[in-house]
Amino acid sequence: MQITNFAERPSLLSRYMMEMRDSNLQRDPMRFRRNLERAGEIMAYEISKTLRYKQEEILTPLDKCVCDVPDEQVVLATIFRAGVPFHQGFLKYFDYAENAFVSAYRKYKEKENFDVLIEYLASPCLDGKTLILCDPMLATGASMELSFRALLTKGTPAHVHVASVIASRAAVDYIKRTFPQDRTTIWVGAIDEVINEHSYIVPGLGDAGDLAYGTKD
Question: Cα–Cα distance between 118 and 207 in angstroms, integer?
Fold first, then answer.
């Protein structure tokens, strides 16, 4: 399973990552949402390089021209709610893609004990398609796995790209164990080594959903 960690090769994404992590700068929800979009745009462009292409002949105002166009049907899937601006970044580049949405949330039984539940799913048929499953924070990997299993009720994709802004090392290892080894690629802005007793990534950036849309009751 191939893993691309953007932090290993600094780029413009490094700047946006810094702004999302900085506890002073992240107080601006509009900037935070825009940086999630930017991360999605950059990852979308990098993922596009791995796709299969075909040549199509078109007619310009002056003559015929042969162009390379993607030869894979892409489905963009995201997990509510923090995933929405991240998803939008991908959609700005893969504007021809189909879309899928999953609602996964933590149902707490005790302060530090919770189950991840799937409550909503909307997806096209996935058979033979390229699935890009994006969620900004990959903390334990449980939400990503359960969302993937829910999506599999809509068909079996030819390849899966798992995309996150920040992941814990434990979550990356979990995805490697639970997703198809030969059909999965992981893309992540940074991998942090620690996950705390509340299942938050450390240093991470906090609660991405709250930072993007406000605190919840």
Answer: 19
Region of residue 206 (phi > 0: left; psi between -120 and 50: alpha; otherwise: beta): left
Closest among 48, 68, 43 to 165, alpha carbons compared: 43
Which pair of tokens denotes residue 168?
């814990």
Asked whether residue 112 carries a pLDDT value surpassing 60, the answer given is no
Instruction: Kindly list the domain boundaries of the chain, sorted by start residue.
Output: 2-48+72-193
Per-residue pLDDT of 57-96, as tens digits, reads 999 999 999 999 999 999 999 998 889 999 999 999 999 9
Q: Are strands 74-80 and 64-70 parallel, antiparallel or unpaired?
A: unpaired
User: How far apart (Å, rounded) are the C-alpha atoms in residues 113 and 124?
Assistant: 33
The CATH fold assigned to 2-48+72-193 is Rossmann fold (3.40.50)
CA angle 23, 25, 29 (to 5 degrees): 100
The two three-digit tokens of residue 42, written as one number: 């950059």
Token pair belonging to 202: 């450390």
Distance of CA 6 to the CA centre of its chain: 13
